[in-house]
Amino acid sequence: MRNRDVAEMLERAGRILSLRGENRYRIRAYQKAARAVVSLDEGIDVVVKEKRLQQLEGVGSALAEKIQEIVETGTLSMLERIETVSLPPTKMNRTILLASALTFSTELLPQLVALPGVTQVQVVGEARRRRETVTGLEFALAVSDMAEAKESLGAHKHLHSCRWEDNKCFTVHSFGIEITFHLVVEECFVQTLWQTTGSVTHVQKMAMIIKEKTGQQIMKVPGQSNALQLLSEEELYALANLPLIAPELREDGGEIEAAQAGQLPLLVDAADYKGDLHIHTDWSDGAASMKKMVEAAVELGYEYVAITDHSRSLKIAKGLSLERLSQQQAFIKSLQDKYNIRIFSGIEVDILDDGSIDAPNEVLANLDVVIASVHSAFRQSRAKMTTRICRAMQNPYVQILGHATGRLLGKREPYEVDMAEVLRVAAMTGTSLEINSSPDRLDINDSVARRAKDAGIAVAINTDAHSQLELANMLLGLAMARRGWLEKKDVLNTSSAQDILAILQKKRRKH
DNA sequence: GCCGTTTTCGGCCCGACTGTTTTCAGTCG
Q1: What span, in angstroms and rounded, lies between the C-alpha atoms of A177 and A101?
Q2: For residue range A291-340, what is the model confidence (pLDDT) as tens digits?
């Protein structure tokens, strides 16, 4: 088992504890241990063998035991043992971050598939549509034996107070999440999958269209067997003479009309993603060394990665002085030959209170990637903030506006800003907007991303990773992009290593 | 969950800056 796998499991455990509303320092302990493991310079198995786990920063007796268990068995029984009593309503999660929802379903899915009488399981509902937060999880289950499946579901030790309505089960998981299970016989699986995935209006509209075209009643009526036996959702959309509409689009946001007009976007896909343009290292406030971050990017198969540490004003995050920045550029050059990946030197430069940029233009001119972000004075008036951000985008060296609204899901509202004006100036100046993929940022969100695309603005999907594990958050940003109807051509970092620099530097060459 | 002791539980990253300053809690990643 690789260090990375062990770290991922610890990270997952932390996320699940967080779903349960556990002590945040306990959660942080798991995250800290995950970082310690992933940044080790030796194999974790060696450390286990030589009983040196507790020498790691942030690893005590309890976590040492758990890490040992993971290394030796590949599992973590603590997750199984988590209290099998339902949480009090006050501790229930009402909104769950997409990242947590996906982590949770990854944990639960294999358990569901293994239940007697169950043959197929899929996440449906808001999580399958990849909404930024979800209120609960829904699963569609194909069953070979309804009675047996119902019984085994009811007997699952982590599922509490199951309430059945026909073959639908409402329950609460020990981890503090409300779940709805839709049980159907195998012949009806695809239909149920579809019906429980799209928003209500999407599903109703589609059902009407199919009724008109074919006379068929596509909506499954509880307790009634259905004549339609579909093998895939493609077949279902084909009944309406339409191509498959991706789950992320099924919000009745014009996707049906677009499909009818043959103008459905060919959504950007993980395979299109060529590299991360916003990551941090321990030169500023990142947890891992540049080498570790670069190696993790190589492991993900990227063509390039941009090192974009904080600028001098952001003291709290150990922002780089101009001298340190220049040393970092030299270090990147020295590292380049050792790796089969392009390492771009960049910066996440602060947009100061008045919209000026926290580094001189002659310094920015020597960097490959310049992201400008607001990290201070969030409470400016709407007019001031708008002017501030727009002024920053006027800078010919600012290629990307980082996390444009500054929101933290569940923690901090976005700052006041006139987004229409930001989009106008971004388009005018040729500045890209970032979809920041941090689980609690997802900033810009799906709807702004769609407006950006309509305005002809390129969008960069970045992770803002502060550790190797966070590079994987790219999938969340990608989900937002897809929800925003973005295609490969709309996304900056789908360009190859050969092309990306020229594209990034188009703006400065105009000046 | 870890840590560091005032050895048994309380606090828990970092530090400069802000403010219709009065003396320190809140803010930023």
Answers
A1: 9
A2: 999 999 999 999 999 999 999 999 989 999 999 999 999 999 999 999 99
A18 and A47 in a single domain? The answer is yes
* CA–CA distance, A83 with A21 (Å, rounded to integer): 13
At A296 the pLDDT is 95
Provide the domain limits for residue A216.
Answer: 91-260
Q: Is residue A421 part of a domain?
A: yes
Shared-domain flag, residues A391 and A423: yes
> A14 CA to B1 C1', in Å?
11
Residues A368 and A400 in one domain: yes
Looking at residue A88, what is its pLDDT?
65
Chain A residues 36-95 within 7 Å (CB) of strand B: 54, 57-64, 78
Q: Same structural domain for residues A251 and A277? A: no
Residues A81-106: pLDDT tens digits?
776 666 666 666 678 999 999 999 99
Distance, Å, A32 CA → B4 C1': 18
- Between residue 417 and residue 436 of chain A, the positions with Cβ below 7 Å from nucleic chain B are none
Nucleotide of closest approach to A28 (CA, C1'): B1
- What global pTM score does this model have? 0.95
* Closest amino acid to nucleotide B12 (CA–C1'): A25
Buried b (16+ CB within 10 A) or exposed e, A143-180: beeeeebbebbeebebbeebeeeebbbebbbbbbbbbb
